[in-house]
Amino acid sequence: MLNKVLVFGEIRDGEFRNVAFESLAAAKQIAPDGEIVGVVAGEEVQAEGKKLFHYGADRVTAVEHTNLAHFTPEGYTQALKAAIDAEAPDAVIMGHTALGRDLSAKLAGRLNAGLVSDAVAIEMKDGPVFTRPIYSGKAFEQVTVKDGLLMATIRPNNIPALEADMGREGEVASLDAEIENLQTVIKNVVKNTATGIDLSEASVIVAGGRGLKGEEHFKMLDELADVLGGAVGASRGACDAEYCDYALQIGQTGKVVTPDLYIAVGLSGAIQHVAGMSNSKVIVAINKDPEAEIFQIADYGIVGDLFDIVPKLKEEFKKVVV
Amino acid sequence: MNIYVIMKRTFDTEEKIQIENGNIVEDGAEFIINPYDEYAIEEAIQLRDEHGGEVTLVTVGEDEAEKQIRTGLAMGADKAVLIEDEDVEDGDPYSTERILGAYFAGKDVDIILAGNVAVDGGSGQVGPRLAERLGINHVTSVVDISIEDGKATIEKDVEGDQEFIEIPVPLLITAQQGLNDPRYPSLPGIMKAKKKPLEEMDLDDLDLEEEEAEGKTKIVSRYLPPEKEAGRILEGEVDEQVAELVSVLKNEAKVI
Question: Are B7 and B34 in contact (CB under 8 A)?
């Protein structure tokens, strides 16, 4: 029986990432009758922290410090450790993002805790059983934490958040913590994700391969993604050919994504790419080669010239997307 | 500089995965150095060539990993250590943290490089866990690093954004794609690698009890995702195909 679950809500650019709310839903799943305590960390996060009540938190605590203005593993580990010492939870949940992956592993090290990373589903048996992809989604394993503090990170976009209940409100408590001896100095941050939609959280992804034939043609995918409020990804081939940045790469090396809609444009469907996207809910493939492997896993396929199809598709989507 | 690389033998990313009796079938599969660890090895070699010192490869795993270790040595690493963990119960990232922690205890380390994740287990836990156990700083997902006067200047990839960091050594970093272009072993490199020192040890040699390294988590099952059935190829002229696609996405699949 888990009586108390601590959920760390990640805030980026002043706002919660959606996976913060999904983490609350995961906490509810593993402790239906337990208390859910939301924790936020940053320089000034009290106001934003209130939103956790709407999504299932029973209490919310903020650790605020000038040294938490920017994420550093050491700073945030101290903040979370202080919250865990104060609350003595049975479990700790957070999102499996760049930050969450980094923080959860260091924190698990500090606490000598078992950590299940990147869970996509939870089943309750004697205790929580977490499903997580291995080999980038070519297979799955089910994992339990044997004893002691249970820690888990959940993959964005897989465990649905509870519907916001604006009637659930509360005061965000403040926790004083020493955040000191930080040796990481962040000199500068350059934001490249102009749309602000991260691949791992995007519900629609338009991905291009070598069939795009050049960097200049990737704009076409940007435009299509914009219409759908999605993000752009790429195959390894397209990245190797320097059509786009490696940050966009989806596959066994690169990002693993599970959007609602994945539109594969001019990519062949090599196994190492498919590993990174095959668990998408609906897959559309556009390729001029009817034998391309991508059609084996696509729900809907169009065989033809992408340079003809993609602009038309954009116009057609414009008509139906509000 | 004392430079260490934590590397892992993994399935080739081109391999299909098969499961029998809950276990991954390894027979006949091709194995490689975890691709992210290749970046770590390459960067370690470059740091050594610039600053002097030695590159030591450290693997926790089975005997079979010797092949991948020799490849790393052929790339240019100086020596290697293979720590066998066969007898550890429920081996997980915590186990690897404890084993590597015992190995590094008392060692004079300037920098440890690891891959950002292993493409098999994919947790990305071991690097930060180990840094925590050793009480040193870490930076994950590094795409550029230079070291001068005991201070590392790093570019880190944060989901596509770039973060520029200064941090003192000793330090553990995890390598992200884009850090470098790993070299292929040269023929002379491969010949030399055969004679480079490879030390094999087990938990007894590290004064670590098997129970201390017992995993904190337990795998209860493994399975393959259901085979996807090939879907529907839309027919007709381009305009018709496009119209039908948008219609089915909206009305049938309901994803837009």
Answer: yes
Residue A194 has pLDDT above 70, yes or no: no
With contact defined as beta carbons under 8 Å apart, do B211 and B205 qualify? no
pLDDT band at A197; cut points 50, 70, 90: confident
Interface test with B, best of A302, A313, A319 (most B CBs within 10 A): A302
DSSP A151-176: EEEE-TTTSPPPPP-TT---PEEE--
Tokens standing for A33? Answer: 């009758």
Q: How far apart are CA A156 and CA A159, in angstroms?
A: 7
Does A189 sit within 8 Å of B163, measured CB to CB?
yes
pLDDT bracket for residue A191 (50, 70, 90) = confident
Average pLDDT, chain B: 96
pLDDT digits (tens, 9 = 90+) for A6-19: 999 999 999 999 99
**Chain centroid to CA B238: how far?**
44
* Distance (Å, whole) CA B161 – CA A13: 12
Query: Is residue B194 exposed (0-12), middle (13-18) or buried (19+ Cβ within 10 Å)?
Result: exposed
- Closest chain B residue to A313, measured at CA: B242
Which whole-number Å values give the CA distances from A166 to A106, A159, B221, in the listed order? 34, 21, 40
To the nearest 10 degrees (0 to 180), the angle between helices B238-251 and A306-320 is 40
Q: What is the pLDDT of residue A73?
A: 97
Which residues of chain B make contact with A297, given a CB cutoff of 8 A?
A: 228, 230
Q: What is the ipTM of this complex?
A: 0.95
Which of A190, A283, A284 is the closest to B161 by Cβ? A190
Measured CA to CA, the distance from residue A64 to residue A285 in angstroms comes to 47
pLDDT in tens, A117-127: 999 999 999 99
| Residue of B119, B165, B137, B158 lying closest to B7 (CA atoms) | B119
- Asked if A9 and A92 count as a contact pair (C-beta separation under 8 A), the reply is no
A:B CB pairs within 8 Å: 264
Report the alpha-carbon distance of residue B230 to residue B213 in Å, rounded: 45
**Is the Cβ pair B159, A106 closer than 8 Å?**
no
CB contact under 8 Å between B122 and A135, yes or no, is: yes
